[in-house]
Amino acid sequence: MIKKIFFPLLIVLVLLLAACSKESSTEKETTIKYWSMWNKGEPQQVVLQKVIDDYEEANPDVKVDVQWMGRQVMSKVRNAALGGNAPDLTEQSGAEVEGTLFKNDLAEPLDELLSMKIPNEGTPFQDVFIDEMLSFYQQDNKTYFIPYEIISSGFHYNENAFKEYGIEPPKTWGEFIKVNEKLKSEGVAPLAQDGNIDFYNAYYFYWLVERLMGPGALLEAAGDKTGETWTKPGYLEAAKKVQELVDNGYFADGYKGSQYPAAQTAWASGDAGMILNGSWLSSETAKYSSKDFVYKAFPFPEMEGGEGSYDQAELYLIGWVAPKGSNKEAVQDFLAFAMQKKYQEKIVSDTKNISTRKDLEAPAALEDFREIVVNASSYHKEYDGLQAEYPQWWKTVFLPLDDKLVFGEITAEEFIKELKKQTKDYWSKQ
């Protein structure tokens, strides 16, 4: 009788121990759900996949479940976060992350990460960054956004071409106009422009307002539901300067109908003197430029009496964020691993971009842009944050009107009048 009771009891105990052991093993396994902004095959995707592979090898109890979702990832993350099913980690530009997640309390602070040591280096995480990169998108003194790539915008030019024509990079608007005239006199189109890219066209008015009225001015006018802010004289002055470029014929012939990347390709081939664009342009055009082409850049010129200065830079950061409900401990461990110098070097060498690590130089073609950022007196967001803060207004009101201004289809006065009217109409329907 005792044996009959003992053996079934023994079997039960063995099964319980096996179950406990299995449960314990399962509890040790961690999955980081990562939705990336990059597409398969892009240089950044290749670099990040290497980071993920190495991290999983170093941490066999962790699985990084990555999905390469492309540039529209943030709208998908927002919807998932609202439904309580967000990934543990995602990435995008800081301005878009701020407008999508921060403003809706849909992100986790990552402050514990700042004092963590970078694996294989022993340096505190926060100490490897260029000054102000980590703090630029802080909310209430908390760190939510971890940037790993720096982008900015300005005028690109070929150093050898400028030397040939005896041109020095201009610092003021007056000097800039003289450079345009010099190029025209040499039979060279001063400004290349792919007119079918509306947000490239927007660079001129945006930068002029930054230099004339300072950061925040565009955002203020866009958010004024009465539209009255647009009547301030600085906005009209900025529009008049765009019109000046159009009326003087500084844009290359056919720019209105130019289909990307025709204009930037022509510029890299020597058919135009300058192009106002993002710092990514050098990597996009490298295969079209001649062997003696030397990529250089200068900031948008300063305006006499303007509130913005020549050394004030645009800061367009790409980085990571942990949506609400993320496994913060696992995410922070992964990010500390990813910011190792050996991986960030790949951001420079393989993706041809500027790393946020202060101990890494920029690719040769982006040395000027890194200097512009590192030596800046202050920073502002790309497009003053308009496309992230008021995305529908940006798409339906501003960009169509700005195209008309850049194409010479409306005057500066008509542009401001319509901005005032359409901004008021837009907000009345919200």
TrEMBL record:
One Pfam family hit: SBP_bac_8
Keyword ATP-binding included in the entry's annotation: no
UniProt keyword Membrane, yes or no: yes
InterPro entries per record: Bact_solute-bd_prot1, SBP
Lineage: Bacteria, Bacillati, Bacillota, Bacilli, Bacillales
Protein's organism: Rossellomorea pakistanensis
Keywords: Cell membrane, Lipoprotein, Membrane, Palmitate, Signal
Protein known as: Raffinose/stachyose/melibiose transport system substrate-binding protein
Signal peptide: 1-24
